[in-house]
Predict the 3D structure of the following.
Amino acid sequence: MKRKNLLQLVLIILFLLITVSCDKEVSTSPSEPEPPKGMIFVDSEPAGFKIYLDGRFTGRFTPDSIPFIEEKLFEVGLKRNLWKDTSVFIEASSVQPPQIDVNYLVNPSMRGSLNLVSSPRDAKIYINDSLLTETSPTVIKGLLPGSYNVRFSFEQHRDNQAIVAVKSSQVTNVNLALRDTSIWVDYRKLNSPLPTDILTSVAVESSGIVWIGTIDKGIVRFQNNVFQTFDKSNSLLPHDRVTDVFVDENDTKWIGTEGGFARFDDPNNMQVYTTANSELRNNRINVITGDGVGTIWIGSWGGLVKMVNQTMEVMRTENSNLPSNLIKEVECGLTDIWVVADTFLTRFDGTNFQKFGRKNNNIPNSNTIGVEIDAEGNTWAAFSAQVITYPNLTTERIIGGLGVYNNSQWQSVFIGDLSLTMNDLYVDRDGYKWIATSSGLFRFLDLNTSIAFRPNNSGILSQSINGLVEDSRGTLWIATQDGLAKYKKYLETK
């Protein structure tokens, strides 16, 4: 029995030896060849050029080496944006690897030029904020390829600048116009920190601080080229859509919004009035003004509000003969208050509202948008276009215009066509009547003498005007659909 077991064990061992031997013979293969040992080292001044080998990018940048390549002749190329391509032929070696060292700084063909032209001529030139000795026009040669900030500066003109690229062996033309700010200055999102270009209203303190109402970004304080915005996120302003801004005789600011109105001396300490905490009947405010002796008048969608020493009196159709609770405009005269209620122009004597109609009072139409009183006590009113549909379904289309009332009768003139929308009326200290419209700013000396300011004939930045005001120097500040305009009219008229 033992012999039989021993014999079986010997047979098993022989079988395993034969199997292993067969496996070794099947799996045997030739050894992998050694990788190439050639190498090239590539450097450049400046560094950072892409390294190409026989036209293919190696994924490496100078300075770096190209290892494990055949010991043969290669074309080594160097490429970088804006720089001329460079290539050399060199043979790789494992014994003494060759080195390529390209100094672009000493090669004049690698440099480019800037042809600098400005309007007006003779402007100062800044390149990357460094002032040059040359003035425009001029050509600056020998510049290394790259991006350059070119800025022109000229007295009483707004600086203009551009970021331009200089390429090897090429001339880059820079031709910039500088906006004349001697008479007109424009501020918009592109050139200032204004939060939006759509401005609704503007008012000025006696100190010259300008307050600007915006369509949806709150109120902006502007002084000495510094803009500061106050909205619901950083103040108590009740709504970010500002409808009117008024500065009273004490430089107190009154801000009308679509969510109530605010009174403040310090924008960080506002007193807010809404339907929730006052007698206001509607939070949508259209206009705020004052009589110069402490009384504030607020026109809202819910009636006319008279405010004296924080006490409100609300006049509505239910408690007066006010023709509508929608108050669009209020102007204080010496003895009367002029009120635009919906499309009705009225005069309030403290007790009753007298309506002025188109047919019996000789005003252009009943769609009044602005009322102002001049130094002689004449009442001026601007009227926007109007389409009237009568009970017999016939319609009458009436264009807008300007009217004046000398306390006995109205005289008027029509302006533009049905597409012309009137937005505001303002009388300055020189007696000029300014009408803000959808098609420019109109200035009237009288009903027969006028001029229109538009971008194509003046320095105003927009033809869609929403409001304006004059400061103590005689400068007009104009709120437009495209930013804030500053018009130094006192310089132009001298």
Notes: The chain is about 5% helix and 50% strand. The first helix runs from residue 2 to 27. The two ends are 138 Å apart (CA to CA).
